[in-house]
Automatic annotation (TrEMBL):
PROSITE patterns: START (PS50848). One of its GO terms (cellular component) is endoplasmic reticulum. Residues 37-215 form the START domain. This is START domain-containing protein. Pfam families: START (PF01852). SUPFAM superfamilies: Bet v1-like. InterPro entries: StarD4, START-like_dom_sf, START_lipid-bd_dom. Gene3D superfamilies: 3.30.530.20.
Length: 215
């Protein structure tokens, strides 16, 4: 499937091997021992940890919290689709550019400026894949260099990231939601500002999601 972006012709990757590789990478992150993580932020809704990323010079973040709802409904709110824009305060637009079989798609989305606009709005083009994991679901993604960058946006890049959502054994109407995020915002930014923004964004993600699920 070819896409003409300006003068460039970007080739979309073959979705099946990319989905498989992405899933394996996320499962590998999910097995990293507790001792390798350092707490970055704690709120009543979630704990956020971080460790140096092996993909780029920033951090791999891990966020975890219990969400009072069933797995499918939570993941429907997180993965690309109509719910996400409604509640995620960071996301300002989202378009699904291509859809593949097996719960795969390519989406383009934009994010709001952060930290009093020290971090300007960003645009991302991500390959997204949702699959079963244990008794629950994994929805994961990775950025693609695809399509032309819109004016007024810096194109960011998400290294492999995703959300595991599994029902709690004793309380199946509650789910344990664990996210792994490593976003390269690009552009000229102080790393400390990025790190502050990432921890807060992930903690807010949980509180916003919980509010959305209650409505």
């Amino acid at each position: 499937c070819l896409y003409a972006g300006g003068n460039q012709m970007d080739l979309l990757p073959n979705s099946a091997p990319l989905a498989r590789k992405l899933r394996n990478t996320l499962i590998q992150y999910h097995s990293i021992g507790d001792s390798e993580w350092r707490v970055a932020k704690q709120t009543k809704d979630a704990t956020v940890w971080r460790k140096p990323s092996e993909e780029f010079s920033g951090y791999l973040y891990k966020a975890q919290g219990v969400v009072e709802d069933v797995t499918n409904r939570i993941v429907d709110h997180i993965r690309p689709g109509p719910y996400r824009l409604d509640w995620d305060s960071l996301m300002t637009t989202m378009d699904i550019m291509e859809t593949f079989e097996e719960n795969c798609c390519v989406m383009r989305y934009t994010t709001a400026g952060q930290l009093w606009n020290i971090i300007a709005p960003r645009e991302f083009v991500d390959f997204s894949y949702t699959t079963s994991y244990e008794d629950g679901l994994l929805t994961c993604g990775i950025s693609l260099d695809y399509g032309e960058v819109r004016p007024n946006f810096v194109r960011g890049f998400n290294h492999p990231c995703g959300w595991f959502c599994v029902p709690l054994k004793d309380y199946p109407s509650h789910s344990l939601l664990t996210g792994y995020i490593q976003t390269e915002l690009r552009g000229m930014l102080p790393q400390s500002a990025v790190d502050t923004a990432m921890s807060s964004t992930l903690a807010n993600f949980y509180s916003d999601l919980k509010k959305a699920l209650k409505t």
